[in-house]
Write a structure and sequence with these properties.
This protein is mainly α. Among the domains are: 2-229, no CATH class; 383-431; 448-511, no CATH class. It has 18 helices and four strands. The strands form two sheets. It has a two-stranded antiparallel ribbon with strand order 1-2. A two-stranded antiparallel ribbon has the order 3-4. The chain is flat. The two termini are 91 Å apart.
């Protein structure tokens, strides 16, 4: 059918058939113990090759792929010759070869010239010889039909017709062969053989038509027997159907009656409860009428208090149960999320080493049919290259360690300077007013370095001198205080690495 043809074509284009051929071409040591699976795979491969439509790859399919399939099948048949279980498996493989040749007759020459086929023909086993004789006769018939269809040589045609005349008693021929002989091979000098072969073919067709008619008669008789038997059983089927329908209707009626009884019982219970409640309320009113007037109000308050307690207890129970169910739901949601994350993490960890792992061992498909993975051959590296690579890695590691130590020293120096800066900033922020400052407190703001203290004093004096200038000296000069500072500020910044302790500049930004 069309669906089967599309499936076979997809198998060919996707490379499944090519992989099957590679599996069948494995060495006998790897096929040990699975010869039955190999024979089944050979039969499936041959069946898929018959009826496939390669399309644009038709030439490669007929000239390269099909000959490789034939070679593999004959090689497998040669390997089965030395096995004790060979006869049934060998017959399966040779049937696959015959099925392939019946659809592609141009492969007959390759089969007859194959060394594996010659080895199979030299077998001494009677069963195997019979199988080989059958296969050989089928190959010869296919080759003869192909020669009649393709060749126009009279000698070749006469030999093919005589061969088919001798073998016609045991084998069927292709359909349409009689019309081919009638049109193309009359008047070539061997009309007697042609007429004899045409008569035999038409006799076989008549016998086949007679067998088809006999089969139709047998099928019609058998179907009439089945029909009469089915009609005879119709009465019993009707009785059984009525019995089942009545049983089902009776069961439904019983269910309806039981449901009505339950509803009536529930209604009676509700009525009795309502009547009991009314009697209770009536009795309470009668008792209230017997109580003194000053005790009625406390009694009603007590009743209201008990009702409020009952309502609050019911509400608190409902609230606590809802909170508990919410907590259980949140806990279950967190557990599901944790399991999902753990599963994803485990899959990721499993996939990471799988990318660098060696290719897996041969996998099994079906019962005993297996596939093999093609391993990539790794390139070898010499001992000198390994030693050079090791030395280079050691040098890179040493350089990285030295660079890391240098970076750590720089980070520690920066952290120390930042800590010192923060300390000075806190001292300045918490400094008391000048009116109440003491000499001890003032000394705490001095730098322990003499050079820094001298430079700071000079900068302070320069700022004081700039502030005491006349006003007309400062006209048009907006940055007098900043420009009148000492000339060694850039040197100080370079010495301290862009961090001025006195608070004038930090990383080149003037404060």
């Amino acid at each position: 059918s069309g669906a089967l043809t599309r499936v076979k074509t997809r198998f060919y284009h996707s490379g499944v058939l090519s992989h099957c051929v590679r599996v069948l071409s494995l060495s006998p040591s790897r096929l040990r113990g699975i010869w039955a699976s190999a024979a089944t795979l050979a039969h499936l491969t041959s069946s898929c090759c018959v009826g496939a439509e390669p399309g644009s790859r038709s030439e490669a399919f007929h000239r390269l792929f099909l000959p490789s399939v034939v070679d593999v099948l004959l090689s497998l048949a040669g390997q089965l010759m030395s096995r004790s279980e060979a006869p049934p498996l060998l017959r399966t493989v040779m049937d696959a070869v015959g099925w392939l040749l019946s659809a592609h007759p141009h492969l007959t020459a390759q089969v007859l010239s194959s060394a594996h086929y010659e080895q199979i023909q030299m077998s001494d086993d009677v069963t195997r010889s019979e199988t080989h004789h059958t296969t050989s006769s089928l190959l010869l018939l296919n080759d003869a039909v192909a020669q009649l269809a393709l060749s126009s040589d009279a000698a070749v045609g006469g030999a093919s017709i005589r061969l088919m005349s001798d073998s016609q008693r045991s084998f069927d021929v292709s359909a349409g062969l009689d019309s081919l002989l009638e049109k193309d091979w009359r008047g070539r000098g061997f009309e007697q053989e042609v007429d004899q072969l045409i008569a035999v073919i038409r006799q076989e067709e008549a016998e086949s038509s007679e067998r088809v008619r006999a089969a139709c008669v047998i099928q019609a008789a058998w179907r009439s027997v089945l029909t009469r038997r089915r009609v005879k059983n119709l009465s019993r089927a009707v009785s059984a159907l009525q019995r089942r329908y009545r049983a089902r209707r009776r069961r439904l009626q019983q269910q309806e009656a039981a449901q009505q009884w339950e509803e009536q019982l529930h209604y009676q219970v509700c009525v009795r409860r309502q009547q009991a409640r009314r009697r209770l309320h009536q009795k309470q009113r009668e008792l209230l009428q017997l109580l003194p007037a000053d005790q009625v109000r406390p009694y009603l308050e007590e009743c209201e208090h008990r009702a409020a307690v009952v309502i609050q207890s019911a509400w608190r129970g409902f609230r606590d149960r809802r909170r508990y169910s919410d907590a259980l739901r949140d806990s279950a949601r967190r557990q599901r999320a944790a399991r999902t994350l753990q599963r994803a993490g485990r899959r990721l960890l499993e996939k990471r080493p799988a990318a660098q792992a060696p290719p897996p061992t041969p996998l099994w498909i079906g019962q005993e049919v297996f596939l093999t993975c093609v391993c990539v051959q790794s390139t070898r590296v010499s001992v000198e290259a390994c030693a050079a690579l090791h030395e280079e890695v050691q040098q890179l590691l040493q350089a990285e360690l030295q660079g890391g130590a240098q970076r750590r020293r720089e980070e520690q120096q920066v952290e120390a300077l930042l800590a010192q800066t923060h300390t000075h900033l806190e001292l300045l922020r918490d400094a008391p007013p000048l009116s109440v400052v003491t000499a001890t407190q003032a000394e705490s703001f001095l730098s322990p370095s003499a050079s820094i203290a001298v430079r700071g004093r000079n900068a302070h004096n320069a700022v004081l001198q700039a502030s005491r200038l006349p006003w007309w000296r400062t006209l048009g000069d907006t940055n007098t205080g900043a420009e009148s500072g000492p000339a060694h500020l850039p040197e100080l910044e370079a010495e301290l690495g862009g961090l001025f302790i006195g608070g004038l500049a930090v990383d080149g930004v003037k404060l």
